[in-house]
Amino acid sequence: MKVKAAIIGSGNIGTDLMYKLERSPYIELTTMIGIDPESDGLKRAKERGYATFDNGIQGLVDNPDLADIVFDATSAKTHVRHAKILKELGKFAIDLTPAARGPFVSPVVNLEENIEGDNINMITCGGQATIPMISAINSVADVSYAEIVATISSESAGPGTRANIDEFTITTRRGIEEVGGADKGKALIILNPAEPPILMRDTIYCEVKNMDEQKITESIKAMVERVKEYVPGYRLKQEPLFDGNRVTVFIEVEGAGDYFPPYAGNLDIMTAAAVKAGENVAKHLAKRLSM
Amino acid sequence: MKRNSNKPIKLTEVCLRDGSHVVRHQFTEEQVRAVVRGLEDAGMHYIEVAHGDGLGGSTLQYGRSLVDEMKLIEAAVEESKNSKIAVLLIPGIGTVHELKQAREIGAQLVRVATHVTEANVSAQHISMARELGMEALGFLMMAHSAPVEKLVEQAKLMESYGAEAVYVTDSAGALLPNQVRERIKALRQSLDIEIGFHAHNNLSVAVANTLVAIEEGATRIDGSLRCLGAGAGNTQTEVLVPVLQRMGMDVGVDSYKLMDLAEEVIAPILPKAQEIGRGSIVMGYAGVYSSFLLHAERAGQRFGIDSRDILVELGKRKAVGGQEDMILDVAAELAKQKA
């Protein structure tokens, strides 16, 4: 049994989500909600036969049976309002904005412990790309400090990210600590305008308490395979480097090229992680509904 | 000298920030106090103090500070009376939180630095600085790497956010005098705010470039004593001031005192004399961010390859300021190709 879902926010992220959800064996996308009837996302959704609303979340309030899971790809401010409404409607919210009303989630790290709730937050693109690595290292070597550097192409950094770049660094740092398990975290973001646009690259530095090169390498590689299940273009760029109590991991993220061009791995990993989380939530809900 | 501006020249001494790269961010509080005392005595207008990569730069990516930069800023504020203490902030590395902290302990000016094409990440920090009552200037790094029209467009963005000056920042030390001239001139014709110039001496034209910049109308000028700055350092302050005097410009800073400070306090801080080494020349030639130098030398040693090959490769891949992690990555890759 597929669980019904809706997307709120018909911008780039929402549109890319639509293409990914179309392929899901666990989720049936029914609805796309926006506020601009002329938006490319709403037009595409209509063409593909989904219910579309251009009056925002009211569309769902009036038709609550259209979805059990709601992906919110609007803005932080808007999601604060949506979170309340979705809770009252009894919907499970997957929040791709920086609002963070619910707990931070990386689908391969801590989804299970948050699946009984009703709202999860997808942290940041840099968080989705790096926290699985930190968690993998932490699980075998105990990370005292983790620092990540996310370098993305200028083309793929939207106006929201640019207007509040501090939100990225601060939220990602929190995710590194709260989800990745590092005692202390730090996040850096760099925009590179090179043409043709560069793929997203992430460097992860960890200082560990229990250095064991072999165990750490194995744990990293196993985690890369798990992330690859939902982001096929996620890969190690180099073998991990070791230096004293420090391990350095180089990651490259190539997107699936659904709505975004493949270089925008940073955008792709957000939507892919949200879909992965949504599918697990759907499986959980289906089980609960059938009982 | 005929100048295209009637505003006074304001000098900023950057050795306690840009020079942080040279000492691998190991400045002590005593060193900072001694340098600031000397600069205050010489009448320096602004003194920049921060990690080399700006507020919040103490990281594994760039190198950890020996002493918390806030402590160093605080010490600098204590030692200065007329000189104003400035800080650098690179959005993506530092945040408004560090900016507020620096303001609380007495920093009066911030330069908000972005890559030359990415000015719109600075809006948040420039407007916050103004709200905090600080002077806020924009700092467009790697200015050699974008066409002049792009530079102008980006500078105008910073002006619209409230920047009181925008710098042409030659992070790679790659600009030649005619290129400095066209950039400053274009900005002068498009902006209502002051224009600044920050040089690196990788191709030995920092003083020449600075003179051209001043002639074209730049009024915010950076220098570092004894060239204590990344790569081959910046415009040598204690050289620039007497040169300006020879040209009939008194900027109100005592050149003998600067020379004494350079000789007696700065020279002993330098790990080795600031000559223009092969790495710096290659960076200027290939347009590579100057703070990559020491990282590339270390990576070259670690992987047994020529650091110049790393630097040139970074230039080819269009690495921007802050991408120090790419140095290890490129070095490991080059070593693999060689093997």
UniProtKB/TrEMBL annotation, chain A:
<dbReference type="Pfam" id="PF01118">
    <property type="entry name" value="Semialdhyde_dh"/>
</dbReference>
<dbReference type="InterPro" id="IPR000534">
    <property type="entry name" value="Semialdehyde_DH_NAD-bd"/>
</dbReference>
<feature type="binding site">
    <location>
        <begin position="10"/>
        <end position="13"/>
    </location>
    <ligand>
        <name>NAD(+)</name>
    </ligand>
</feature>
<protein>
    <recommendedName>
        <fullName>Acetaldehyde dehydrogenase</fullName>
        <ecNumber>1.2.1.10</ecNumber>
    </recommendedName>
</protein>
<dbReference type="Pfam" id="PF09290">
    <property type="entry name" value="AcetDehyd-dimer"/>
</dbReference>
<keyword id="KW-0520">NAD</keyword>
<keyword id="KW-0560">Oxidoreductase</keyword>
<feature type="binding site">
    <location>
        <begin position="156"/>
        <end position="164"/>
    </location>
    <ligand>
        <name>NAD(+)</name>
    </ligand>
</feature>
<feature type="domain" description="Semialdehyde dehydrogenase NAD-binding">
    <location>
        <begin position="4"/>
        <end position="117"/>
    </location>
</feature>
<dbReference type="GO" id="GO:0008774">
    <property type="term" value="F:acetaldehyde dehydrogenase (acetylating) activity"/>
</dbReference>
<dbReference type="InterPro" id="IPR015426">
    <property type="entry name" value="Acetylaldehyde_DH_C"/>
</dbReference>
<dbReference type="InterPro" id="IPR003361">
    <property type="entry name" value="Acetaldehyde_dehydrogenase"/>
</dbReference>
<feature type="binding site">
    <location>
        <position position="266"/>
    </location>
    <ligand>
        <name>NAD(+)</name>
    </ligand>
</feature>
<feature type="active site" description="Acyl-thioester intermediate">
    <location>
        <position position="125"/>
    </location>
</feature>
<dbReference type="InterPro" id="IPR036291">
    <property type="entry name" value="NAD(P)-bd_dom_sf"/>
</dbReference>
<comment type="similarity">
    <text>Belongs to the acetaldehyde dehydrogenase family.</text>
</comment>
<keyword id="KW-0058">Aromatic hydrocarbons catabolism</keyword>
TrEMBL record, chain B:
<protein>
    <recommendedName>
        <fullName>4-hydroxy-2-oxovalerate aldolase</fullName>
        <ecNumber>4.1.3.39</ecNumber>
    </recommendedName>
</protein>
<feature type="binding site">
    <location>
        <position position="171"/>
    </location>
    <ligand>
        <name>substrate</name>
    </ligand>
</feature>
<dbReference type="InterPro" id="IPR013785">
    <property type="entry name" value="Aldolase_TIM"/>
</dbReference>
<feature type="domain" description="Pyruvate carboxyltransferase">
    <location>
        <begin position="9"/>
        <end position="259"/>
    </location>
</feature>
<feature type="active site" description="Proton acceptor">
    <location>
        <position position="21"/>
    </location>
</feature>
<dbReference type="InterPro" id="IPR017629">
    <property type="entry name" value="4OH_2_O-val_aldolase"/>
</dbReference>
<dbReference type="InterPro" id="IPR050073">
    <property type="entry name" value="2-IPM_HCS-like"/>
</dbReference>
<feature type="binding site">
    <location>
        <position position="200"/>
    </location>
    <ligand>
        <name>Mn(2+)</name>
    </ligand>
</feature>
<feature type="binding site">
    <location>
        <position position="18"/>
    </location>
    <ligand>
        <name>Mn(2+)</name>
    </ligand>
</feature>
<dbReference type="Pfam" id="PF07836">
    <property type="entry name" value="DmpG_comm"/>
</dbReference>
<keyword id="KW-0058">Aromatic hydrocarbons catabolism</keyword>
<dbReference type="InterPro" id="IPR035685">
    <property type="entry name" value="DRE_TIM_HOA"/>
</dbReference>
<feature type="binding site">
    <location>
        <begin position="17"/>
        <end position="18"/>
    </location>
    <ligand>
        <name>substrate</name>
    </ligand>
</feature>
<comment type="similarity">
    <text>Belongs to the 4-hydroxy-2-oxovalerate aldolase family.</text>
</comment>
<feature type="binding site">
    <location>
        <position position="198"/>
    </location>
    <ligand>
        <name>Mn(2+)</name>
    </ligand>
</feature>
<feature type="site" description="Transition state stabilizer">
    <location>
        <position position="17"/>
    </location>
</feature>
<dbReference type="Pfam" id="PF00682">
    <property type="entry name" value="HMGL-like"/>
</dbReference>
<feature type="binding site">
    <location>
        <position position="198"/>
    </location>
    <ligand>
        <name>substrate</name>
    </ligand>
</feature>
<keyword id="KW-0456">Lyase</keyword>
<dbReference type="InterPro" id="IPR012425">
    <property type="entry name" value="DmpG_comm"/>
</dbReference>
<keyword id="KW-0464">Manganese</keyword>
<dbReference type="InterPro" id="IPR000891">
    <property type="entry name" value="PYR_CT"/>
</dbReference>
